[in-house]
Amino acid sequence: MDRLEAIEQIRIVAEKVLGQGALTLAADTRLLDELSIDSTGIIELLMELEDIVGFEVDPDTLDPAVFQTAGSLADYLAAMASGK
């Protein structure tokens, strides 16, 4: 999975979690600020992405910086999908 594919997966899941359609998501979209995703939404987002991408997140080792932007989360997803 490359960065663009990861951003698309994040967009699809964010639409589901937020109950909104047709979200525009760019690499520099700030997830917490611009999309107003709260902590519960972040957990839902992660759980959905885990199912789609096929990885498991250890919340104790997850750096909060991963959720700054769609791009930072996409980079994390791409790394997880490739087993890094």
Query: Major β-sheet, in short?
Result: none
Topology as H/E string?
HHHH
Integer-rounded radius of gyration: 11 Å
**What is the number of beta strands?**
0
Strand percentage, roughly? under 5%
Give the overall form.
globular
Can you summarize this structure?
The protein is an all-alpha fold. The chain is built from four helices and no strands. The longest helix has 16 residues, at 3-18.
Describe what this molecule looks like in 3D.
The chain is built from four helices and no strands. It has 84 residues and is mainly alpha-helical. The two termini are 12 Å apart. The relative contact order is 0.24.
List keywords for this structure.
84 residues, 4 helices, mainly alpha
What is the topological layout?
Layout: H1 3-18, H2 31-34, H3 39-53, H4 70-81
